[in-house]
Amino acid sequence: MKLGARILKTGLAIITALYVAKALHCPTPIFAGIAAIFAMQPSLYRSYRTIIEQIQGNIIGAVIAVLFVFIFGHEYVAVGLAAIVTLALMIRLKLESSISLALVTMIVIMEAQGANFITFALIRFATVMVGVFAAFIVNLIFLPPRYETRLFSAINIVQDDIIRWIRLAVRQASEHSSTKQSLRGLKQRYERINSLYYLFKEERAHIGKSKYIKARKLVVYRQMIATTLKSIEVLNRLHLHENEIANLPERFRIIIQERLDYLLTYHEQLFLKYSGKLKSEPTTWVGQEEYLQRNEVMDIFAKHIVFAHADEGDEEFSSYHLLHILSRILDYEENLEQLDTIIMAYQNHHADELLKVELDNRIE
């Protein structure tokens, strides 16, 4: 089992909250530890947003708890009614993410009894807030998340796997069930990449220049992710219509195979270009002079359709599915060209940042 940074930070936040609460002579430090668990978030921005919402939620929970104790006393029925009112108010104010901790605050305050109820209520409210602030501080200074490095690495690794599977599928060398299982896993990993992208997007750049750099990076990564999705769609079509591809004329099979080989090599070189290992210029590779343009591919495909209609066999059905395959390949190609243009534009503006990405990847 791998211990991630968030797991370690959650444990450290609990320890910090307990020690701080004990140092402040809080009567029940355990409430600070519980609050630290609820307040821990995967990014600095979410931690900042959470601490604001938790403060609001805890104030609501504390105020409702005090009012219900004064009105109804410490009866269990009063606790349930206070919980209902707290839930309704939190939902009304769109503070759903802070509901759990607000309810905890409400219950621990209503549990306090005695003549000095208000004092105990303030102390327990402060104890809960100690846990919230402890989680924020730990997230701020201990192993701050590096989502850009993780995002680039995740895209790169997933794309390598996609490229290998496409090369096998287009040569009819992959086993059907293995390809199906791999496709399911690739789609799940793609969803995790999207989550990493939004976490990286949420991180705030505070300096003016950094904001422009971050904005351009987001454009690059967004196109990287879009292109990865297009490559998954190509693999999916090759998997679904492997029988139709096997029955195509040999010349057309070779055209599809060679075109995908060129595009996959193109994609590999784009990652090298972004990491600063290739020059900032239009990407070329050996044999590109023999590469067919899109209109030439469509001309060949149109001729194949004419022969298929003249044949009155199963070729017409194959041609129908071939249209889906070609549309995915051409869509993939257009996204690669757009990614190449975006990377070149970014390199021209921020060449030094690309070196930093490469160094970060080596450190990681």
Question: Could you explain the architecture of this structure?
Answer:
The chain is mostly helical. The mean pLDDT is 80. It has 14 helices and no strands. The chain folds into two domains: 5-141, no CATH class; 147-363, Methane Monooxygenase Hydroxylase, Chain G, domain 1. Helix 3 (44-72) packs antiparallel against helix 6 and helix 11 (250-274) runs parallel beside helix 13 (315-349). Helices cover 80% and strands 0% of the residues. It has helices spanning 5-23, 30-39, 44-72, 76-92, 99-111, 117-141, 147-170, 176-202, 208-240, 242-246, 250-274, 294-311, 315-349, 351-363. InterPro entries: ArAE_1. Keywords: Cell membrane, Membrane, Transmembrane, Transmembrane helix. Its main location: membrane. It is found in: Cell membrane. The chain crosses the membrane at residues 12-39, 59-91, 98-115, 121-143.
Summarize the structure.
It is a multi-pass membrane protein. This protein has 364 residues and is mostly helical. It contains 14 helices and no strands.
